[in-house]
Each structure stands twice: as structure tokens, then as C-alpha cells.
Amino acid sequence: xxxxxxxxxxxxNWAHLQDDCVAxxxxxxxxVRNATDAVRFxxxxxxxxxxxxxRSYPNTFLPRAPDEKSGRTAIxxxxxxxxxxxxxxxxxxxxxxxxxxxxxxxxxxLFLLVHVRDPERRxxxxxxxxxxxxxxxxxKELQPIAVLxxxxxxxxxxxxxxxxxxELQIFQALQLFAHFYDEFDHYWQLEMDVRYTGDTREYLDSxxxxxxEEPRKQSRERASYAYIPEVHGSYRDFFSAVNATLEGxxxxxxxxxxxxxxxxxxPPTKTPQEDNFEWGVGEDADLIVTxxxxxxRMMEDWVYRGWIHNFEDGGDTPRTTCxxxxxxxxxxxxxxxxxxxxxxxxxxPSEATLPSFAxxxxxxxxxxxxxxxxxxQQDPVAMDKFFxxxxxxxxxxxxxxxxxxxxxxxxxxxxxxxxxxxxxxxxSVIMRSWLGKEPLKKEGQEEDPTKQAVPYILHKDEQGxxxxxxxxxHPYKA
Length: 478
What we know:
Helix 2 (87-102) links the parallel strand 1 (73-80) and strand 2. The protein has 15 helices and 13 strands. A 7-stranded mixed β-sheet has the order 3-2-1-4-9-6-10, sandwiched between helices. The chain has helices at residues 14-24, 87-102, 127-137, 151-157, 172-180, 200-213, 219-222, 229-232, 235-246, 331-344, 350-361, 380-388, 403-406, 412-415, 426-434; strands at residues 73-80, 108-116, 146-150, 186-191, 195-196, 287-289, 294-295, 320-321, 327-330, 365-366, 459-460, 466-467, 472-473.
């Protein structure tokens, strides 16, 4: 007998459900604040003291002490005003809310951060205009967890920066979210076209566990490589190969620049050779990236290579980019960026913002390996050459140096074929097949790889059911 009854989704308040979950576990957290609190975003009208906030300037450049941390993480889904909330994305968001927020005993709270792009709406001028935009652009079911922002908000807080477009400054809204929703230690920024075929919480927890147990030593060098088991062996083998190549050395502590003093801790030893991969183990990472990292100064064809503003050394400033701009950042990291942009107008492209500031401040960052497939399948040795430059070697400071990352413009037919990338069709092929939808047809394409009924990484059993491995996919275009 089926005892399940239909759910009236519009009457469901996801904010209250998440708040109740946190309240029942309040003894586990040092700070608790309800997601249902009144709208917190407000325009910056006085840089000395913002009414209604407990934090004043310029005393915001200091990291939190360990006893100030809450133990909680916000999941921030990035949406926009005319986004179409169809049945599939609604089911996906509900699954994330249940798996990652409610089933995690308050460790996670999910929000929808919505960009209202029409400057005439003036959503932060008064509550009536804000509510009107909320009613127009966000389904009733999601309104309790939605937070709206617009260009006026970003301009008011970052007047020394002349660029606020999402494609170049996607983290400005997240920086303000961390400023106003400061009860969290970490903030996952996820896009609406990210999908998890498995349990969302298990994926996020596994990323967090890996990053927590990864030592700081050589983490930036390791993050520059695409780990390929068929080439590198076990991750321990890969780990040891990087260390052998660097002879126990590598980047150590903050990559200091002239524009500010780092807020991260000093290394415990004078040289990395004196550390037996102990520093940072058991410490939550300030930054978890989901893509291979690259030294911007060595890139040959990135359109934003020279896009860096208000730094004393200009284009000679060391910086790192780790596309796509989907990552988890700590409050400390976001606050440091917020302060640098607010006070000095320091800015660089979206994909380079988090890793570069983490590097400059000596904050821990990690690139956990995750399953990564291509369509059509490629030879692993060729892909190691393509993404990493082949065998790990001390050239370029032990950093990977593959054509895909440093001169990839002419190779999109190879790089843009992966399960996790910024412009690949493969995630859509997988999801559509898994959901039983017709494959997409590309106009003018002679041999469309989407014509195959079931991609090779899926399994169709005797009953016709299609099974998927536990994967993170991006981008999925529904």
C-alpha cells in the first residue's frame, strides 16, 4: 500500500524547517541565527558604521579565532531574476535541502542568492520594492530561503571598483552574503546548473574531509595537476611524486605582495623541508576549489590574463586561477577580499579571486580529486600531457604546465568534453539519459555524440533502469 500523500509545496517553508533543524542541534554550534531573519542586505551609506550591524570599519581584516567559529556551512545557490524554475530544478533543490540541510543536523543551510538585474527596480530602497521583486522572480516555495541583490548594492559597497558584472566579479555578492550572514564558517557557492547524481551531503562532506586532512605543504603545487589514476597510480603515489620532484620543498606560507599584510598563520618551520607534512592536517581549508589551478602569469591566451586593477605591481603580481568559479570559501577569506575591495578597490577576474587572495594571505586551500570523465573517451597518457604537461618535473616551480591550461583556446574540442568543466555538453548528455529524456540534437553537427542511447559511464540493467555513479556534473542545461 502506498501511504504517501501529495505535498503542497507552496505551503512548505524551507527556512523554518532548516531553522528547526538547527535549533534541535543548537548545543553543537557556538553561534546560531535563523535563516528566516528579516532581510539583512542593505546599501552601504556610511563606511564608518553601518546601522544595524555589529561590525565597524576598518577593524575587519582580522581572522576569526578558533573559539569564534560556528561549525556551520552555508550552501549558496546562484540564480537570477528571469531564471526558469522548471520541475527538474525544483526537484533537485528539494533533494539538496533534504540531503544536505535537514539530514545534516544543521551543519548546512541552503540559500538562493538571486541577482535582480534591472537597475530600475531599486530593491534595497524599501521593503515594498524588495517584496515585489521577490514575488515576481522567485517561486513561493523558495521565497523564504531567497536573498536578493542588485548592482546598486554592489556599487554602494565597492565604489572603488568600476566593474560589478557577474562574469568578472561573481564573488562580490558572496562576499556581502558572508558579511551579513556571518554565522557560518564556510560558504559553498554553487551554480544552478550543477548536479549531483549521488547524495549532496556525502559529496560536500567528502570534499571537506579530504581538504581537512590534506597538509598545507605542497598543496598549491598539487592543486595545479589533474590527478589521473591510470597515469599517477594511487593518490599517495601522486603525492610522493610531487614531493620527490620538489625535493621536499615548495611554496611555504603566504605569497607576500605589497598591498597588504597576510592574515594567515606563519609556517611552523623556517623551510618546508623541516616539516613532515604535519602543518595544516586537521585544519579546515579556507578554500576548496573544484578545478585545476594555473599560474596566471604563465598563461598565453586567457582573455583576462592582464585584467588586474589597483595592485602596486600590476601584472607582475603573482596570482592563480582555478576555473570554474564554483568553490567553498571560509568567512576569513571572504572577509579579507571584502575588506581589500571595500578599502582599496583591489580586484581581478572571478576565477582568480579566491585562490589568489588565499595564496597572498597564507590561507589553506585544497583541490580534492573527484571523478572526471570525457566524451569521447581519451587516452589517459595523452590527457596527462594535455592537462599537466606530462611527467611531474621541477620546471615552473613544480607546477603543472599543460596546453589545456596555458594555451587552451585551440583545444576546446578536447577540454570542453568533460563531466566537470565550464562549457561541456557531456553533463547534459548524462543527465538527460539518466532522467529518460531525449538526447539533445546539435544543429549542423555531423556526428553527434549525444545520439548514443546510454553514455559509457552509465549502466542500463535488464529491467531497463539506468544507474549512474556518484558524480558532480557541470554544466547541465535542462
